Model the fold of this input.
Amino acid sequence: MKDRIRLLYTGRSRRATRFRYGVMAFDIATIVFFIATTPIIRQPWVIAADLVIAMIIAADFAARLWIAENRAKFLRRIYNLADIVVVVSLLTIPFAGTNLALLRVLRALRLIHSYHVLRDLRRDTAFFRRHEDTVLAAVNLFVFVFLMSSVVFVLRGGQEAGLTSYVDAIYFTVTTLTTTGYGDIAMSTPMGRLLSVAIMIIGVALFFRLAQAIVAPPKVRYTCPECGLSRHDRDAVHCKHCGHELKIETEGAT
Done:
């Protein structure tokens, strides 16, 4: 049984690939659900859905922990710690306030963990092979926006003028990281201003990384066997660094 589960998470078969795609789809669906239901977390149907999701996440976490070669290292990874926090928050929502429920958005960290399907996406999706940098930069920016929005609302919600809901926190985060700065929501406390600085420094860097990935000439990920250079032009036949002959898979009509 342990070997079968390990093959599902790490194997190269079509069955394993479909399983990993299913896990990634579940991750995306739960993140969308958590964000959409944040304002209505007290509704009974939302609480019931949270409990079902918590059981699925716990089962997935237990399976990955069981097959891990180094369980101590597994438990130190940030996205696995986030899973623990998310499960605890989901199970305690009926007895806790809004702030604890917002910890559900930490599930967005699983998008980073879902990078283990990169190999599958490169093999199966021509669009991903051509735009890998853009997709990953967009995912990083998405995760940052919603995680920082949660931090802003948990720490400063109701304490800063105009910051009364999670939507307000998202609005503030986006206007801050894009340096738009309309001024209708402004931090007046030292903690709030430090949060603003963090959003601007990290968020602007992620935003420009996405812009760079969109406008820069597309590269393919292929490790040169001679020097290890991992990015090359799509039509490259020799490594620009060492001149070694490359054999990059290309698409074309037969």
